[in-house]
Amino acid sequence: MTRAASLPTSRATGRASERLIAVAIRNVRHDGAALRWAMFEAVPHLDAVQIVHAYPVSDDPLVSAAQAVSRDLGYLAGWEIVAGAVEQGSRMRPDVALIGTPVGGPVETALTTLSGAVALLVIGDDEPATPNRRIAAHLQLSAQCPVVCVPRGSETFSALPVTVVADDLGLSEATLRFAADFALRHGVTLQLARTWRSLHRAVAANGGMPDPAALADEQAELDAELSDLRREYPGLAIVSRIELDGAWLERAREHSSLVVAGRLTAPRLGLVSPLPTPLCPVALVPESWSDGMGPKA
Q1: What pTM does this model have?
Q2: 236: domain CATH number?
Q3: Number of domains in the chain
Q4: What are phi and psi of 80, to 5 degrees?
Q5: What letter does residue 174 receive in the DSSP assignment?
Q6: Backbone phi, then psi, for 20, in 5-degree steps?
Q7: One domain, residues 89 and 168
Q8: 131 plus 206 within the same structural domain
Q9: Which residues are CB-neighbours of 212 under 8 A, at least 6 positions away?
Q10: Element (H, E) at 166
Q11: Of 48, 45, 24, nearest to 35 (Cα)?
Q12: Average pLDDT of each block of 10 consecutive residues along the chain (297 residues)?
């Protein structure tokens, strides 16, 4: 079993390496797809994968003896979960360094803190039977690095396009760069799908048919926004389209290998909570994020 002794660090800053991928594990059965996705995204000899399990603790300094015992048992159980995940991850990718640790505290707090020290945070399918994915909803507003939500049963990767989804409030450079880097590493097309409320109103006012001139103008504006990206990524196939019907988001989830959205865009689109059956992983990217994951070897 391959295990790193400590977190990789940057010589220049002494901070945690930009090539550290963290994956949150409730248990291996529940989050096996997230672990698999993270392991196969890791680049041998460049990336390390950190497995994290959060267990509850009390902030009360007068915690009772029973609660203290419960906390200690949580810590020991956490180590068992982490050890099992490290063993499974090592079998998947023996060439990737693995570290693991249980962390005391609420899951949302632990993962938000962790997101400030890693390049990418991968989480499992949070509460799939309910419309409110508490952990994913919290991280899409608070995480400092990109967060990938991987549903149970998801394949490690497919040859389908990477899709950036956006609304009428525009695109963020961070979201586009993350998606472009990911698509380029995997050799797939990058597509951008955007819905515009103004077009929906125009369609409604035109008997259910889009106004061709308005649609052409909106598409030309969208293509102009992508001109810099096309120049920076000349080897990447980039397509874009304006979406007019209400089912476009679920369609993107069904026909993409990864759906990418800005952290602020995601809740406006309802990307996390209203979809009871996730279809492919979703990446939530902070608009202020500027670090890259680098090329895939």
Answers
A1: 0.81
A2: 3.40.50.12370
A3: 2
A4: -65, -40
A5: H
A6: -95, 120
A7: no
A8: no
A9: none
A10: strand 162-166
A11: 24
A12: 32 48 85 90 89 76 53 79 92 92 86 91 70 73 89 74 83 90 93 74 66 81 90 94 77 86 73 58 85 44
